[in-house]
UniProtKB/TrEMBL annotation:
Ranges of residues in domain Penicillin-binding protein transpeptidase: 263-572
Record region (Disordered): 1-20
Name of the featured protein: Peptidoglycan D,D-transpeptidase FtsI family protein
Residue ranges, compositional bias (Basic residues): 9-18
SUPFAM superfamilies xref list: beta-lactamase/transpeptidase-like (SSF56601), Penicillin binding protein dimerisation domain (SSF56519)
Family classification: Belongs to the transpeptidase family.
Keyword entries, A-Z: Membrane
Main location, first listed in the record: membrane
Protein origin, superkingdom: Bacteria
Ranges for domain Penicillin-binding protein dimerisation: 71-186
Amino acid sequence: MPSDTRTPRPGRPRKPRGSLRGSPLFRLRFGFLAIAMVLSVFGARLVQLQGIDPKAYAEMAAAEGIVNVSLPAKRGDILDRNGEPLARSVEGLRIVADPLLTTDQAPELAKFLANRLDVDYFSLLPRLREEGSRYEYVARRVPSTVATRVVDEAADRGFKGLFTERDPVRDYPAHDVAANLVGFMGIDKPLAGFEQTFDGLLAGTDGSARYQVGGGNRLPLGDNTVVEPVDGQDITTTLDQDLQWYTQRVLRQTVEDARGDSGFAVVMDTRTGELLALADHPTFDAADPAASDATDRGSRAMSDVYEPGSVQKVLTVAGLLDAGKATPESRLRVPSELRRDGRVINDWFPHDELKLTLAGVIAKSSNIGTVNAADHFGRGELRRYLAKFGLGEKTDIGVRSEASGVLPSSSMWSSLVDDRVAFGQSLSVNAVQMAAAVNTIANGGVHVDPSLIQGSATTDDGVEVGTDVATTRRVVSEKAARGTARMMERVLDPEGGTAPGAAVPGYRVAGKTGTAQRVGEECACYDGTFTVSFAGFAPADDPRFTVYVVVQNPRNGGGGGSVGGPAFSKIMSYALKRYGVPPTGTKPSNLPLEW
């Protein structure tokens, strides 16, 4: 290799090997110096943030923090049997504030929002100033048009930091139709009815979103995590919205015309036990529950118990026929009064001694005749039949606060109780219980559990309800049921019956009136008020529907035939026509009433 013959430039001496800058000791010292300078800068900044300006540090942390947001699930709809919504979720928005941007204008913004939304100024103000927060609720479940208008107006006025997110609103398009069963929602939880009973199914599961913000904006490349919500399940009821609407209107007019305190009506599919209508009056608008009295927001048909009166007599005679103790033409002497155990039993109408058949006893609704006929029962036999008819037990159809009624226990069952129960006093029922019992006669002697839910659903108490879990049981023979139905037809006889006003033109109808004394809450005694009712089914010889109408404390002097009968006729006529049930074309019962 040739030697280096280049001559060094004048004035630039060659750098000697082993100079200080290239030595390991120099590099080590320089590194320590650089580290010390960086640590000094960090230390000074830490002192500033923690000791000199902590508020500025908190604001910076919030400005570049993590926001956690709940993503609400859509609540399931409550539908009638034809898929029409009784309760549904529609698009809504929630209004949310970013306190980092609203703090400076908090008092003015809180006043603005309180004037335009259903929010309280004093509770909202601290949320608009919440230190360290980037996300505070202003209002939940606001209709989309309202929320958008408010936020846009706020922006036009120079307010910053408001935005909207999806938040479905509960809507009740049917308003008062079936409101006593459907119930209603509060801001964040259900407060009554199916909304509360089936909340676990309807509510679904909320999702969540977690994202990073910086400088007042969401960082697209920051920490972003989303768990999608799981929407709630729909619940389909057995109710027919149109029939429910009509039943409620007839019931309201009936109660008002009778100047009664309240009333309820039941329409049941005879064969399936499905409740097509379950009406209460007074009722309320589920879209505006606060406008009504709290006592009107439940179902009196399920929670109120009362003595059924003479409607009960059809159960008594059905048991007698089934046990072979009587026939529709059995002859009975009916005195003007009956003395039993030191007490006097009277009929609702004055009379001398009558010679009535059992059919005549039912047609004229004689207490004395019923008691005489019931004397043929063995000890405890009447009670066993009534228990099989479902009295004294809840129906468990999915309505909260259902009362079980009272069927006196065997140990409390005396001869006096036996007499009074035979014609419908000294026991209590709820309306659906009694309707299902009468429906047993319409259904050929087979009791079918009433249902309000199609398919099956589990209540929040863990009870499975619905048509899929409804059971049946035979209570009386088909022959006994048909014999009882023929006697019930005579109740509508224009000359000998108590309820000609319950007739449905063109159809054979079987029915029974009821008038019972009421027990007053204050005295726990019969207080001079009454429960009047009418129960029946049609066509009498091939039943399709059972209808039961009850009015509490009518002040017009009417009874079960004059008050409940016409209401029954209207509701039954509507149901038969709506479902296209033709008349059977057969001749009505002509059982003799006297002998």
